[in-house]
Structures are given as C-alpha cells and as structure tokens.
Design a protein that fits this description.
Elements: E1 21-25, E2 31-35, H1 36-46, E3 51-56, H2 61-66, H3 71-76, H4 85-95, E4 98-103, H5 110-116, H6 118-121, E5 126-129, E6 133-137, H7 142-153, E7 158-164, E8 172-182, E9 185-195, E10 204-212, H8 215-226, H9 234-243, E11 248-252, E12 258-262, H10 266-280
Parallel strand pairs: 3-4, 7-11
Antiparallel strand pairs: 1-2, 5-10, 6-12, 7-10, 8-9, 8-10, 9-11
C-alpha cells in the first residue's frame, strides 16, 4: 500500500514499514532477522499460495529489490557460505512463487489497494494479507489455510480472522454469533462490521487477514462509484457483502497458539520485535 507510515517517522522516510525486520527461527534454531513482508510471503506460501500480488507505492524500490534474487550478492559472499543459508532459503522460496506488482500511486485506503489488484487476481477466490503485520504461529500458514478451506466449503462471501482486544475503537470491529468450529478454530457468523467506531458493539477486532471471492471487487467498485473522493476501506466492502445477504464468517484467534504482531506504530513495533525474538529463540512449542 502507498501509506507513508507517518506514525513511524522519521525511519519511514527512507524505509517502508513493510521492510522493518522481525525475528524468525532459522535453520539450526538460530534467530534471524527478516522484513515483515518476507514473513507474510512465507505464511502465504505455507498456506498453499504460489501466486502473490504485491500492491506497492511509488517508493517500493527496496521491496522490489528484496524479492528479486541477486546472483552478484551470492558471488560476493561465496567465501562466507554460512552467512548465505537464509538468503538461499529465501531465493528458493522466490523460485516457487510468482509475483505480480501493482502500483497504488497515492494513499487511498486498504480497500483501494485491494481493488487495484483485481486484474491480477482474476476470477478466483483469494487471500488478502497486509504486509506490515504477521500472525506468529507454531505452524506457519495454518490460519490462512483454514480460512481458505472454510471459504470454499461454506460457500462464503468472505472469511475474516478476528481477535479480542481491550480497546476496539482503533480497529475494524466485528459483530457476530457463534457458528461452531473449523479446523480447531472457533467461528462466528458475522452480522455486522464497523471501522473504528466511537462506541464499539463488541470487542472483536479484525486482523488484516481475509479470504474473499471476487464479488468483493464489484462491491468496492460500487462504493467508489458513489463517492470517488472517499478513502476506500475493506470494511465497507464487507458491510456490502452482508447487505447483499452473502454469508460472512470469522475465525477466532487462539491466544495460546498464536500472536498477531503489527509494526504500524513505535509501541507496536517494539512489542513485535521483542515477542518475535523470544519466539525465535524458544524451543519448539506453541507461542506464549
């Protein structure tokens, strides 16, 4: 997305927040630093995704360079093969994923970024994931895989991933009723959603992970057509699905098993970096 990361200035004057590093556990159990966007790509691929569309701003040179294999770099550091282990693992991942790149030339909302991807996505169900946040899981991609299968099996219009928060006013807030379980997750039938309400009607906050059918593009186009000057939010598209009577569901995060980490603010980044280091140096087991 073309957002400038103003809450993280001045560092985001020269570095997109998606490129801020977090830790993961590398080969041999050692902690390794990688951009949040790298961890997101790992999770998507682990969930069975091999076509990824990146919506980027005009200042995405570092992101493009990172996700392009660099043979010259490998040659320069060939005498330090031990330092190239994780880079080679990244390049192996890149060889198995096809990237499309779409430009969002100015900040116009997460929904606008999604809408710009429609030509690349085509007529297939798809996953949407912000690149400045990551769900740290014991098994990478598990939640995304469950969302994908739920969307298909239940013929849903959308599947969200939600967590309970203390102050929902800063999030897209979801209302819903219990709808059973799916692959170890509690589920909700979503009855309403509101972006950053002053008087939240629940404590369920949507994370920036979604599963959609292409119908969401039609709804976002309708909303944009009614008011082209309005910032376009994914929340508005979900509200449109519900208004059409399309079934919308949510999987509920399991705090004992996973943790949502966002780098959108200095405080959030500090917590994410600290938690990711502890997770990267922990012996195998569920996140705590």
């Amino acid at each position: 997305m073309a957002g400038e990361g103003s809450r993280l200035l001045p560092v985001t004057k020269g570095l997109r927040k998606e490129m801020l590093p977090l830790f993961y556990q590398g080969k041999g159990g050692v902690p390794v630093l990688a951009p949040v966007a790298h961890l997101v790509v790992n999770s998507l691929h682990a969930a069975g995704v091999d076509n990824i569309t990146m919506v980027v701003g005009n200042d995405a040179a570092n992101l493009l360079r990172y996700f392009t294999p660099d043979g010259a770099l490998l040659d320069r550091h060939a005498h330090h093969q031990d330092r190239l282990v994780e880079t080679l693992a990244l390049y192996d991942l890149l060889s198995r994923v096809h990237f499309s790149w779409v430009i969002q030339s100015s900040p116009a909302g997460f929904g606008d970024a999604l809408l710009r991807s429609s030509a690349a996505v085509g007529d297939h169900p798809f996953l949407l994931h912000a690149a400045d946040a990551i769900l740290m899981e014991r098994q990478a991609g598990r939640a995304l895989s469950a969302m994908k299968s739920f969307l298909s099996e239940k013929k849903a219009g959308a599947v969200l991933f939600v967590r309970k928060v203390r102050d929902p006013r800063r999030y897209g807030v979801v209302e819903g009723v219990a709808a059973g379980r799916w692959e170890g997750y509690r589920t909700l039938r979503v009855t309403g959603m509101e972006e950053k309400p002053t008087a939240p009607r629940s404590s369920w906050a949507a994370t920036a992970m979604y599963a959609f059918t292409p119908e969401i593009f039609d709804i976002l186009r309708e909303i944009h057509g009614r008011d082209p000057t309005r910032e376009l939010e994914v929340t508005s598209g979900i509200e449109g699905l519900i208004a059409r009577g399309r079934p919308v569901f949510a999987l509920v995060s399991r705090p004992a098993e996973e943790r949502w980490l966002s780098v959108g603010s200095p405080e959030g980044y500090f917590r994410a970096l600290h938690y990711s280091y502890r997770a990267a140096t922990r012996k195998p087991g569920p996140p705590k």
